[in-house]
Design goal:
Immunoglobulin-like; mainly beta; eight-stranded antiparallel β-barrel; six-stranded mixed sheet; elongated; Porin
Length: 297
């Protein structure tokens, strides 16, 4: 693990700073007082910007002093930024500390390297890296026929009860208990909104409650066709499952937001989808298992 760079004393800020990089800086003021507040006023190219609130970090070297720290927002290449720190107490200014002015420059690139595309230089909003962990392949047999309540003011309500089902994979192996189901609403634009409750029993006897919503796309004319019990052979299904359990071995599931993608064989009311946990941070490779083509036995 690479350690984060240490914060820099504010009065030691260089005249030029790297664009696209926040500035982690600190001040030391004396005498100390528990009600002190340090706020950094900013002007970018002469235009006032929102101030930044510093916080006491407790790392002062002198017992009679007080150290504050702030993370100043990154600048775009070419910006000239003036910082004016103000120390106050109970709403009254105690001191206007010495200010600094810096100019943001594009990151320097060594010979042979490819210049990084700074989000703030290009104007593109930064994106978070994310990835998925494959949890298991889900297969469920729905009971026939589904229970339809006919057209209602908000659309067509259809209940698909679950006859049997199971999930198998590297992280979860379980069967479905009882009669869970999908209390679906088919909107007039042909989109089915899934509302599912399922209880799983794992191979080691843990009970997992799974609940989720999702999109079951029946096509632009799906509503009218659903009124006639007429569907595409393999409509796609995208879900956002979550889990609840109190079993000590499976508490990690409570922290996950999952996604599931698959299709439904409407002739047999057979649902197949792959279940993934979403991870935010460094990109993660998918570890999905090979699957037979949809509709294959």
């Amino acid at each position: 693990m690479i350690a984060a760079p240490a914060p820099v004393a504010f009065d030691a800020l260089p005249a030029e700073v790297e664009a696209g990089t926040p500035l982690d800086v600190w001040w030391q003021v004396a005498p100390a007082h528990p009600s002190h507040r340090l706020e950094v006023e900013r002007r970018v190219n002469g235009v006032r910007k929102p101030s930044v609130q510093a916080w006491p970090d407790g790392l002062q070297s002198d017992p009679g002093s007080q150290r504050f720290r702030a993370l100043l927002p990154p600048c775009e290449a070419g910006d000239v930024v003036a910082y004016e720190p103000v120390l106050s107490r109970a709403g009254l200014v105690v001191a206007e500390l010495p200010g600094r002015q810096v100019r943001a420059v594009a990151p320097r690139v060594a010979a042979g390297d490819v210049a990084p595309q700074s989000a703030l230089v290009t104007g593109v909003v930064p994106r978070y890296d994310w990835g998925t962990d494959f949890l298991g392949a889900f297969t469920v047999q729905l009971a026939k026929p589904p229970e339809s309540f006919g057209p209602a003011p908000d659309g067509l309500h259809i209940t698909f009860y679950i006859a049997s089902g199971e999930i198998h994979g590297p992280r979860i192996n379980a069967r479905i208990r009882g009669e869970g189901g999908d209390w679906m609403l088919v909107r007039r634009d042909g989109v089915g909104v899934a509302d599912v409750r399922i209880t799983y029993e794992t191979d080691d006897g843990a009970l997992l409650l799974s609940r989720y919503y999702g999109i079951f796309d029946l096509g632009p004319d799906g509503y009218e066709r659903a009124l006639r019990n007429d569907y595409d052979p393999l409509p796609p299904l995208v879900l956002a499952p979550q889990f609840v359990t109190s079993h000590p071995k499976w508490l990690w599931l409570n922290r996950l937001q999952c996604i599931a993608v698959g299709r439904v064989t409407m002739a047999d009311l057979l649902v197949r989808f792959d279940l993934y946990a979403v991870r935010v941070g460094q990109p993660l490779p998918s570890s999905g298992l090979p699957r037979a083509p949809d509709g294959a036995s």
